[in-house]
Amino acid sequence: xxxxxxxxxxxxxxxxxxxxxxxxxxxxxxxxxxxxxxxxxxxxxxxxxxxxxxxxxxxxxxxxxxxxxxxxxxxxxxxxxxxxxxxxxxxxxxxxxxxxxxxxxxxxxxxxxxxxxxxxxxxxxxxxxxxxxxxxxxxxxxxxxxxxxxxxxxxxxxxxxxxxxxxxxxxxxxxxxxxxxxxxxxxxxxxxxxxxxxxxxxxxxxxxxxxxxxxxxxxxxxxxxxxxxxxxxxxxxxxxxxxxxxxxxxxxxxxxxxxxxxxxxxxxxxxxxxxxxxxxxxxxxxxxxxxxxxxxxxxxxxxxxxxx
Amino acid sequence: xxxxxxxxxxxxxxxxxxxxxxxxxxxxxxxxxxxxxxxxxxxxxxxxxxxxxxxxxxxxxxxxxxxxxxxxxxxxxxxxxxxxxxxxxxxxxxxxxxxxxxxxxxxxxxxxxxxxxxxxxxxxxxxxxxxxxxxxxxxxxxxxxxxxxxxxxxxxxxxxxxxxxxxxxxxxxxxxxxxxxxxxxxxxxxxxxxxxxxxxxxxxxxxxxxxxxxxxxxxxxxxxxxxxxxxxxxxxxxxxxxxxxxxxxxxxxxxxxxxxxxxxxxxxxxxxxxxxxxxxxxxxxxxxxxxxxxxxxxxxxxxxxxxxxxxxxxxxxxxxxxxxxxxxxxxxxxxxxxxxxxxxxxxxxxxxxx
Lengths: 308, 354
What we know:
The structure holds 2 protein chains of 2 kinds. By secondary structure, chain A is α/β, with parallel strands linked by helices. The two termini of chain A are 26 Å apart. Chain B contains 12 helices and 11 strands. The longest helix of chain B is centred in the C-terminal third of the chain and has 21 residues. The relative contact order of chain B is 0.18. The interface between A and B is large, with 51 and 49 residues.
């Protein structure tokens, strides 16, 4: 009998917590996937292009904007592959800006207003520091060197960068630095207070593929969830250091103390705070939305059932 | 003049390569990172079987193996295996010491205690005995040692210890399992890298068997600060058989493993995408790197000199290698030679090309 499994073209960055699916150790039931690791991060436009993949990880703001424009050719799955704290991404000239209060009506420099790092960084300033997003003006910069130069000369008040270290290298001086004296400490405080681990990239599928097979979204979700659990088991393996970070099991335990046992969950319910924050940040920054109901953005998936 | 890496061979060199699953090795096993001029067949088996079959009969050509087994074999004059300074697994072995909480409250209580190990020449045991001496003054001669099977009796050593000092007491147990002896109180502690379920459950539920250290993070940090070591448990080696066929394979396998390692750390440092789902790993790593004499899981001899010298000090005190004269370079002479030849070859090529 021919292999009549559903063929799925998947373009996915390298995620250690998804690798078991990519290398075939964890199958997607009913599916024969082909995985491609892209040279640059995939966009919604890549998914929609002729010959584009069926499934990919894309930036959450990119996906929200497509849905906000009324385009429902793409459907996200609640598999949150890339997440990051972005207090460290907010850079200022320290002689001119001492605290978030100095940023009222600021000129914000960024390479891409829709980059998840930018949306999450500005979002936390609005949420936690009362910045009025309507009063901000946005200046587009060409690259990190440009951002550093603009901060130095004062043509922007704050730079929000995906790669703050590249901006700091270009600036090469003590005057340009993070807004927060201790960004990691500020991030920890934010995490403890809000329960948010900001989402940056999520799995997105072409809607017609998901619609064609009623079981497909749940099967994909299940496989990624198994891979995710395996990662954290590997992290704590005392037989051998699967993850080459000295003291990794102890760091993991420390993270659980801040977040609870499961700090990188998939699914909508477990991510209510982070998803609501994502919609709020997008709305505040003028990204059009398809409503404020989180469920509307994701393919429904059956809850993971453990056991064999 | 052509250098040794320019092969006249038309066909890639086929060989078997057994290695366990590691995030810093996976892309090599998945075929994304090639080994120059080679067509490897990767074999994945559970670690104990993989190790035993390579050490005893070299069932595959290239293998991950116990670092302590490797060093001991070479010290015994057994050169069937030829290592390279690649250490896929490195762990602090404070987590390997399981004690009866009714007998042992602090490390010093291990003086005069009866402690079981699955093998004397076992990496977890060597580093645990070393740290007990370095951190708490509890030396191997202060403890009564028992070696045997853990869950079932009858385990024998893969590699013999030929240099045992007279003052170390080691009993070989043939008729009972050491796990059972711990529960019945015939021994007071066990040192082993992979605890059987009864021990794991007891530790997790605060039962009779506990870890020696309540605060592993603090104990590991103290050890790092004192010794600057990241203890290597495993190493990668090539069979003499393959090495005879092609001595340059040592360097080519090394290069591919090094590429996989380097790419892992490039991904880890990405500010654009979280390739690794661990918030604040940079902060954790920065702190650890400040305490260590090396960083980024470095391969090679020079970056690992501290850890290698500590390893040599431990195994010579524990009767696994001669007490004097063994240096870090003596562990990997063929690799050093192959690397030297490769760089001379390159320099000659540059001279020829002018």
